[in-house]
Amino acid sequence: MIATPLTTDLYQLTMMAGYFVQGRHERATASFELFVRRLPPHRNYLIAAGAASLVRYLERLSFSDDDIAWLRRSDALANVPNGFFDYLREFRFSGDLWAVPEGTPVFAHEPIVRITAPIAQAQLVETAALAFVTFQTAIASKASRIVAAAAGRPIMEFGARRAHGLEAALFAARAAYLAGAAGTSFVEAGRRFGIPLSGTMAHSWIMSAPSEAQAFADYCRLFGERSALLLDTYDTVAAARLVVASGLKPAAVRLDSGDLASLSRQVRHVLDAGGLSSTQILASGDLDEFSIAALLDAGSPIDGFGVGTRLVTSEDAPALGGVYKLVEIEERGAARRVVKTSEGKTTWPGRKQVWRVMPGGCAVRDVVSFADESPVADAVPLLVETMHQGRSTDVDSSLEAARDRCRRLVAELPQAVRTVGEETPYQVDPSAAVAAAIPDERTG
Amino acid sequence: MIATPLTTDLYQLTMMAGYFVQGRHERATASFELFVRRLPPHRNYLIAAGAASLVRYLERLSFSDDDIAWLRRSDALANVPNGFFDYLREFRFSGDLWAVPEGTPVFAHEPIVRITAPIAQAQLVETAALAFVTFQTAIASKASRIVAAAAGRPIMEFGARRAHGLEAALFAARAAYLAGAAGTSFVEAGRRFGIPLSGTMAHSWIMSAPSEAQAFADYCRLFGERSALLLDTYDTVAAARLVVASGLKPAAVRLDSGDLASLSRQVRHVLDAGGLSSTQILASGDLDEFSIAALLDAGSPIDGFGVGTRLVTSEDAPALGGVYKLVEIEERGAARRVVKTSEGKTTWPGRKQVWRVMPGGCAVRDVVSFADESPVADAVPLLVETMHQGRSTDVDSSLEAARDRCRRLVAELPQAVRTVGEETPYQVDPSAAVAAAIPDERTG
After folding, report:
1. I need a surface site. Which of A19, B39, B93, B184 has the fewest CB within 10 A?
2. C-alpha distances in Å from residue A121, one per residue of A96, A133, A172, A374, B199
3. What does residue A183 show for φ and ψ, rounded to 5 degrees?
């Protein structure tokens, strides 16, 4: 991970210098909340992800001599007093971080992360906090829909090649697994995160061989019953007949192009007639939740799906409009809740908690209260203290825990909210106290 | 950059093991070409980017003892002979790489990168090659459109927070600058790539201050005439009046919400009437080429644009459907061109060159020939040998050179192709020899 303190926007550094000159950089304590103003099209919920990356980043955040030397030379900080650079030399993140645990379904207006820290610290980390959380949340949210559409059949994440670089591929694989994908093809993600690996063969394996039959036979000789043979290099159904004629017993075959509904039926028929009824059919090729649902609605005999591009880029909503907004500032012992009243971008002031109201174990609505309000009846709080004074707390941040949490908490959402084809809003209300503090929206 | 040899798909490693067992891993020489089958919606051309990252990756590619130990333990390679792991220990990329220089406009069917290497090597690097080139090309292509729409006004890339992680933010900033953006807000990109940095202030600077007037005054005191003041925290036009009343002389003001066409006119009027006619107006807030063109068509007095989310994610086409296809294989002295005939995915066989036909200095069409065909009349070849036997050649791979090239070569495209609002196809023809070798498209 690129984890220098310069992975930030220039204005964070100029504002830090400004706070320093004002003498408020460590004396004013700021609370910022990270949330989305609205859900992207088709999404009824988001799956929170990225807090683990953020915590690791914050724990390690410090300025090296090189970083400081480079900043001193930069035009943008030309008039900044020397004392500021001395401050950077001692800089560490010493704040508190509250986060919705990874894997938790969240909605618009709900803080996913809240940071309370000296204002210069809280300002510096905005860019990284948003980049980690909005990207990983976007991918986990898309993955959750795809997993739901597959209705119990495994989804394999095959998208590394179309991700936004190799680091994005790594965290997309993690987010997909967290949200219920069964595995990934990306080997580095398997190594770093313990995600089960999955793979078949590429067309090049077939095309480089003297014949398709030879390619199949050589692969099965080496990989035996784990082999998954790719059928569509030349003619899918003919390739299925070739598999039967060869006497090979592959675990699976993969279809990667053409009319997958029709081809899967034809291939199933050929395999069954040839005594390969236990050979599974995997499908891939520009799939997403909509095409998977359509294939299954059509009764396609497909046992698992490889999903790439549209998953790892969250193609129909590649960016969440996540924002990181100042909600409260405490100076000289006095706390002040703040709001922005920009047209269409009004914020909810104050440090907040999210309550999921669950009478009888099923979520019915959420309430966003101030952090210091009394608990909401029949509700569980979602934000958990994840860093205290710059150190990670003992919250279980493992990927497997997040994956279990996701499965459990998605199942507790109302059925209509989890249904892929319907846009069903879930109710999120401000508490009475928060509602009273929200200014009227400016309309221009 | 994450640059381990495990940043690949599992099947690349299983196929490598297969080639090893066949005895062909280093004896068969494969040529793969990376290209897109079709342009995304609205795009009339792409801007090639990512080759510099790929070359750096290939030069450093080797398996550490840890990498090999991990692979030996993996279930997926359980039956693979020991000799394969010994081979990995000595593995280096020793192939040739031909690439369209970064910044060059390219079209569908045109190889952007061609790798010719022992088949196991060429296979391993597919995932990284696609991830680098398709991502960076997607962003550069989007940026080129946004720069065109701004019609000479500077575009600042402000999107790090919405990129797919911090590495993606870094390479998105590079791709945007390459395609003509004037600068970036992402400090690490400024440091690593020498891109000019730009920034203003966030709403939190205003909200955390005792008053908006105090926030403006404190910022200008520190940053003087370079200051760009953000006007829309509470009321944009009132803030413009405040600037005038304050006597401050900021370089610019920024509008980040609301009806930018109307607000920019009102703010211009207030500034001009207050003697601040040299203070520029910058606009930001979910902008893209369409909204920028609309603002300028409406005569909005905006002097520069900050563009974030929609640029760094290429939001309307976040993934190029780039593929990396085997086109030729040479074994025992005999070369064989290969094709795939999958439905809708037929490839053009053989190692190819792209010729841009430019009678009189303006591009009129491209011809894709075999690499060993004679030059096309009035045309320049686009693919350049960028690595030879595993080493980078002396091709100028600097970012500034790529940026100059982009500006020059985009200007040589037909006017209609460079026009943002029109979908105008540019003609790309296979040479007669290539056309004769393309199989009829299977139609299912």
Report:
1. B39
2. 11, 18, 28, 29, 18
3. -175, -175
CA–CA dist B22, B9 (Å, integer): 20
Which of B7, B166, B206 best probes binding to A when mutated, by most A CB atoms within 10 angstroms? B166
Q: Where are the beta strands (DSSP E) in A284-439?
A: 304-307, 322-331, 334-337, 352-357, 365-370, 379-381, 384-388, 391-392, 428-430
Per DSSP, the three-state class of B256 is: coil
User: Is A10 close to B234, i.e. CB distance below 8 A?
Assistant: no
CB contact under 8 A, B130 and A315: no
Alpha-carbon distance B438 to nearest alpha carbon in chain A (angstroms): 14
Mark yes or no for CB contact B201/A314 under 8 Å. no
Residues of chain A contacting residue B223, judged by C-beta atoms under 8 Å apart: 14, 79
- Nearest residue on chain B to A331, judged by CA atoms? B208
Tell me how many degrees the CA angle A369-A374-A375 measures, rounded to the nearest 5: 80
Closest CA to A138 of A383, A382, A312: A312
For chain A, domains (ranges, CATH) are 10-139+317-437 (3.20.140.10), 153-312 (3.20.20.70)
pTM over cut 0.95: yes
Handedness of CA A356, A357, A361, A362 (dihedral sign): negative
Cβ distance B163 to A21 less than 8 Å, yes or no, reads no
Enter the DSSP assignment of A77.
G
Q: Which amino acid is at B343?
A: E
A395, pLDDT greater than 90: no
pLDDT band at B441 (very low <50, low <70, confident <90, very high): low
Q: Considering just the CA atoms, what is the radius of gyration of chain B in Å?
A: 25
**Which tokens is A62 given?**
């410090």
- Closest chain B C-alpha to A232 CA, distance in angstroms: 6
User: Which of A234, A259, A329 is the closest to B208 by Cβ?
Assistant: A329
Q: Extract the tokens encoding A98.
A: 């509250």
pLDDT digits 0-9 by tens, A123-133: 999 999 999 99
Q: Which residues pair with B354 in a beta bridge?
A: B368
Which residue carries 């075999």 as its tokens?
A: B370
Structure tokens of B126? 């597919």
Residue A298 and residue A271 in contact, taking contact as beta carbons nearer than 8 Å? no
Residue B127: is its pLDDT beyond 70?
A: yes
- Rounded to the nearest angstrom, the minimum Cα separation between B361 and chain A is 35
CA distances from A295 to A288, A292, A350 (A): 11, 5, 47
The C-alpha atoms of residue A198 and residue B20 are separated, in whole angstroms, by 20
d(CA A17, CA A23): 10
Q: Note whether A322 and A34 are within 8 A (CB).
A: yes
Q: What is the DSSP secondary structure assignment for residue A224, as one 8-state letter?
A: G
Instruction: Give B369's contacts (C-beta < 8 A, 6+ positions apart).
Output: B352, B353, B355, B376, B430, B431, B433, B434
Nearest chain A Cα to B7, which residue? A188
Put simply, the answer to whether B119 touches A208 (Cβ < 8 Å) is yes
- Judge whether A113 and A99 are in contact, CB under 8 Å: yes
Six-digit token pair at B381? Answer: 């070849």
Whether B11 sits inside 8 A of A199 (CB atoms) is yes
User: For A202, which residue in chain B has the nearest alpha carbon?
Assistant: B11
Across the interface, whether the CB atoms of B132 and A165 are under 8 A apart is answered yes
Say which residues have a Cβ less than 8 Å from residue B291's Cβ, sequence separation at least 6.
none
Whether this model's ipTM surpasses 0.90 comes out as: yes
Of A18, A171, A219, the CB nearest to B219: A18
Of B6, B165, B203, the CB nearest to A171: B165
If we measure between CA atoms, which residue out of A268, A272, A242 comes closest to residue A255? A268
Gap from A414 CA to chain B (nearest CA, Å): 30
* A69 min Cα distance to partner chain B (Å): 11
Residues 6+ apart with CB under 8 A from B72: B85
